[in-house]
Amino acid sequence: MKLRLTTQTGIGISNRMMATEFAFVVLLLISFWIDIPLLVLATFALGCCLVLFSSMEKSMYYLAFFTSFSGTFVYDGKHMFFVMVALFIIRYLFTQRLNRKTVLFYLLIIVYSLLFLDINDDLNFSRLIGPILLFAIPIVADASGRIDCKQFIHHYIFGFVLTTIIGFFVSDIPALLELFSYDLWWTEGGKELTRFFGLAFDCNFYALSNYLVLAYLLFTSEKITKGRLALVLFLIFGGLQTLSKSYLLMLVFLAAIYILKQRKDAKRLLITFATAGIATGLFIAISGAMGYNVVELTLSRFNSGSFADNTTGRFDIWGVYFDYFYHAGVKKLLFGTGFNAVATSAAHNTFIEMFFLYGIVGSGIWIGYFIHCWELFSSNTKNYTEKSPFVMISLCFGIFFLSAYTYESLWIGIAIAFMTLPYVQRKRKRWLSI
User: Fold this and answer.
1) 385, 105 contact by CB (below 8 A)
2) Domain extents for the chain?
3) Is the pLDDT of residue 208 over 70?
4) Looking at residue 47, what is its pLDDT?
């Protein structure tokens, strides 16, 4: 008889798997605390064994959980999480019958990438991460009719919540802190303030994952439980400390949609916003007592005058890229600069980044690939009821302002967005159901 821990959040994970995952995290933290890189490597190898030798269903759940910790799987300066994903893909290819169209897309993307790589640049190690991680999406889609999609998502959320908790104490573990890129701010009183990043590469990537989880928690269930609401408030607590303008905008958007969704249930809406108001007030009071006001600091970032400044210079950067495309010539416009090319400046837009690397033709192949992934999810998750378009909307908003191509949690964000995307079937064609 399998025991399953089900809390009021609606997150149900078997006790054995939860204990295994928690023990893994404890071992990982001990490895960094005593600062022994070989022990970190051994812990990562243990995670790979769980993914390789568990049942296929549990393997996917473990992979979803480990994704939140991908930024910690570093040895000798090299990120290793893509190795775990590659082993997972290879195992699936050898043990399961994969959709032929998926295999065709794999071959097409690999051949195209090798054919049009930048021969004047080195094969940058980090550029391999993006395609490998994205190759995991159709495998999850292919298996989504045979696994518990809700558990898959909840294992990821469990991992993300743990990384958020650890993120509040990461400065106490120097060997762990040095793996991440973080921004330091100074308050008016001269107090040093670190923008919160959980265990993501930086604060903006954490914000992206944070509001994807928020969108799932708020909109994929007809009723939000007290426990789930508490989880939402906790994640907002962490998200606000990123001091991210895009996070604040997304939070306002999600709140507005939630009001519209719950407008007929005045009592539930009142309880939700009363709780949120009290929690926000306490949060502001606590941060104020510590010498800063997070909400005020974030809002002050919108007070710079120009639209370019309010987008942190992104419009100027995009202008540089568009100017490059205009003068690049037909070959680079059609086929890109090569998947291994390294831009002198981050695009701060995943769509522009993909276009820069793959050109019109390559971007078209990737679009076809993602449409194929969505079709697989659509046909295999007809009995999965937790659906909402707002997870996908949140994802598209986030990657529009971030260069997330090599972000190690992007693949699962896309998978969850497709998994929860509603559809209706009409005359053998699928259309978005908004």
Assistant:
1) no
2) 4-316+339-432
3) yes
4) 97
